[in-house]
Structures are given as structure tokens and as C-alpha cells.
Design goal:
- The longest helix has 25 residues.
- By secondary structure, the protein is mainly α.
- It has ten helices and no strands.
């Protein structure tokens, strides 16, 4: 059993079913398993399984939602550890938390990246988790702008989107084990953290506050 599947270890039918489904997806990522596949793999009677998950899609949604709750929890914990007066450092911590979530949940990340299998944007039950992260990103950037760390005319929604695209790309490289092609000397997460810091510094240089205000990158200090 993979490390990802082990995270669902438990005696309850729900946990056993999610563990089995995750392991099966890991083996056959192109075609998601059916409830019949999960029943055979887990030893749970199909009728008992269907009492919890009406169909395969419902089981996939449950698997994704469990992982997204971990994402939001990880993002919240990462942000509260940073000085609340340093919005840009909090923004960087949020990016690191997202990439770490992808690193720790690669099967779920791939599942939710495949819109043909599970389109999270069309599922309000799942999209609300991404929306909460999007809202958090925008609020942090607005606070950074209001503190003079970004230009007062900065396009915050566009900057949030650009940052989201960037973070997704970093996460995808880690999940696909492609980071080493560009940075072969470091651990993947170490390389990702360095890249995120560099990205924030470039945002800071490109969105300098007017009138000689302090450069935003001078506010990117992070605790060890």
C-alpha cells in the first residue's frame, strides 16, 4: 500500500473504501476504478459500499473532498505561523502549503487535474475549497497593496491568477518528478521553496510602490 493510501487506514467502511479507491487509482490513473473494483479490492460487499457511495462519481468526490480539507487545513496552519503584518510572507507560505499538499497527495492532485474524470469547478461541494484559497490569496495581496508593498494600482485579481498558475506549475513538476530536470542538486521541496521565494521577489520588483517606499522584497523574511 502506498503512503497516500495508508493515510486512509482505518476499520470503518468509509475509510477502507477510500483507501482502496486511492490505491486502485494509483495503479490505473487513466481509468478510475468502479465501485465493483473497489468492492473486490477492499472486500467490502458491493451493496454495503453502495449504501455509502451511490455511484463511482460520488466516491471520487468523497476522495477529493477529503484531500481538499487537508489542503485548506495545511494552508491555514502555514499562514497563521507567519507575522500577520507581513502579508507577502504569508502569501509565500500559502504557496508553499499548496505545493506541499500536492507533494503529499499526488494521486488526488492528478485526479483533480483531470477534468474529464472529475471537474471540480463544476462541483460546488468541491469548488468551495478552491474558492476559499482563492479568496485568501486575494485578501493577502490586497493587504500587501494597502501596506505599500505593492503598487496602489496593482491588478490584484490578475496577480492572484498569475500566482495560481505558477503554483500549479511547480506542483505539477513535483508530482511528475520533473523538478530534477532543472535542479538536480536539491530535494524537490527545497527547490520548490527557493523557486517560490524567487517568484515573490520578482513580483515585488515588478510592482514597486511609488515615492521611494520600501521595496516589497525587503519584507520577505521568513522564520527558519
Amino acid at each position: 500500500m502506498s503512503n497516500a493510501a495508508q493515510s486512509y487506514t482505518g476499520t470503518g467502511v468509509h475509510q477502507r473504501a477510500l483507501s482502496s479507491m486511492l490505491a486502485l487509482i494509483e495503479q490505473h490513473i487513466v481509468t478510475p476504478p468502479t465501485l465493483e473494483d473497489v468492492a473486490r479490492d477492499s472486500g467490502i460487499p458491493l451493496q454495503e459500499l453502495q449504501a455509502i457511495f451511490p455511484d463511482t462519481h460520488a466516491a471520487l468526490v468523497a476522495l477529493a473532498e477529503d484531500s481538499l480539507m487537508r489542503l485548506v487545513d495545511g494552508c491555514t496552519k502555514a499562514v497563521v505561523m507567519i507575522d500577520p503584518n507581513d502579508a507577502m510572507a504569508q502569501f509565500g507560505a500559502l504557496g508553499e502549503a499548496y505545493v506541499m499538499w500536492a507533494y503529499e497527495n499526488p494521486v488526488q492532485f492528478r485526479l483533480m487535474s483531470n477534468t474529464k474524470v472529475l471537474d471540480t469547478s463544476q462541483n460546488p461541494q468541491l469548488d468551495r475549497y478552491f474558492q476559499s484559497v482563492r479568496d485568501l490569496m486575494v485578501r493577502m495581496l490586497e493587504r500587501a497593496r494597502d501596506a505599500g508593498l505593492l503598487h496602489p494600482d496593482e491588478n490584484i485579481p490578475q496577480l492572484a491568477l498569475t500566482s495560481r498558475i505558477y503554483a500549479y506549475g511547480v506542483a505539477r513538476m513535483i508530482v511528475d518528478d520533473r523538478m530534477r530536470e532543472w535542479d538536480n542538486g536539491r530535494d524537490q521541496m527545497e527547490a520548490a521553496r527557493a523557486s517560490i521565494k524567487d517568484f515573490l521577489q520578482r513580483i515585488a520588483r515588478g510592482s514597486r510602490a511609488p515615492n521611494g517606499a520600501r521595496r516589497p522584497e525587503e519584507n520577505l523574511s521568513r522564520p527558519a
